[in-house]
Design goal:
With 196 residues, the protein is an all-alpha fold. It has a domain at 66-195: Helix Hairpins (Orthogonal Bundle). It is built from six helices and no strands. Helix 3 (59-87) runs antiparallel to helix 4 (91-120) and helix 4 (91-120) packs across helix 5 (131-142). 23% of the residues are buried. This is Transporter.
Length: 196
């Protein structure tokens, strides 16, 4: 096969044509490692943080405030990640890494909330909640599987579950759209710099 540039040899296999260059492979591997380590760190925090202490002001007020603060912190983290994506030399890679951290963080916020609620109000769910049960319930709500083995019973548990359902749509739709838009803007900005 003759190519436009004699120095360029055609790829022997289709796989070679789509494989990133060695320098980018290192960046991808590092991003994947950071994402995996972040996930492990988040899970360790979830399982090791002392969520077992009772709330002094009552479960409704204390838990509601804790959830609101955690969701505001999550929004702040997403905002910082959006700025980092926009400024990154590799916005797609940075966005994938940000999403790999943001989604588990969002889910663990609700898992922690369900765990505390289950500990404070034994009747909040159809069964007692361990940390793993709370994470399992969070994932069944997020994926809309809804096996039915664990279900919210009290009004507080149902309200928090509805907040998670709405949050799921926001995280999947809005945050993903913002990340993708920021990637596109970063690529355009980078292309503009390279053409100068």
């Amino acid at each position: 096969m003759i190519t436009k540039n004699a120095r360029e040899a055609p790829p022997k296999h289709r796989r070679e044509a789509t494989r990133p260059p060695p320098g980018q492979r290192v960046l991808i591997a590092r991003a994947m490692a950071r994402s995996a380590l972040s996930l492990v760190a988040l899970l360790l925090l979830y399982y090791l943080l002392p969520f077992d202490r009772p709330y002094r002001d009552g479960v409704h007020a204390g838990l509601g405030i804790a959830l609101a603060v955690a969701l505001l912190a999550f929004a702040g983290i997403v905002g910082v990640q959006i700025r980092r994506i926009a400024r990154s030399a590799y916005p797609g890679l940075r966005a994938a890494e940000a999403f790999a951290v943001s989604l588990p963080l969002f889910l663990l916020i609700f898992a922690g909330t369900y765990f505390v609620l289950g500990r404070e109000q034994a009747c909040a769910f159809t069964q007692a909640m361990t940390r793993t049960d709370a994470l399992y319930f969070t994932l069944t709500v997020f994926t809309t599987v809804g096996f039915g083995d664990i279900a919210p019973v009290t009004q507080t548990a149902r309200i928090i579950t509805m907040i998670q359902m709405i949050g799921n749509l926001v995280v999947i739709g809005l945050v993903a759209r913002i990340f993708l838009g920021t990637i596109a803007a970063g690529i355009r900005r980078r292309a503009g710099r390279e053409s100068e």
